[in-house]
Amino acid sequence: MEPRIVDFPGFSISGQAIVLDIDVKHGRFKDKTVTLALSFQEDAYPEYPPHFVHFKSSISTPIATRHSTHDFEGENWSAYSLPPSDFWDGLKSSEKNMRTYYQRHLLRVLARL
User: Fold this and answer.
1) 3-state secondary structure 71-106
2) Calpha distance 17→10 (Å, rounded)
3) Residue-wise pLDDT tens digits, 30-54
4) How many domains does the chain divide into?
């Protein structure tokens, strides 16, 4: 599935999220494709990156607690608060982009699940 912007009412400042498939290379989901959604709590991207990562099903993980659940496209999705706050604020403005978010944060999160 190509990344797509979808209506995600109530779960982001804009009411939208980015849904994408990621082939996981490390961790518990190694060699699997995970479908997830990213939503923003703030509307000042790229200063504030996606805050919530939504999974098609609930997952048990020591790195985050499920924030909420919601129905989307006939599935029960779970939202986890996983902002990249440990490094994002220290980046130069030119480095604050989706490539950095994906490579430095999202892949790390998926490997640690």
Assistant:
1) EECCEEEEEEECCCCCCHHHCCHHHCCHHHHHHHHH
2) 10
3) 999 999 999 988 877 888 899 999 9
4) 1
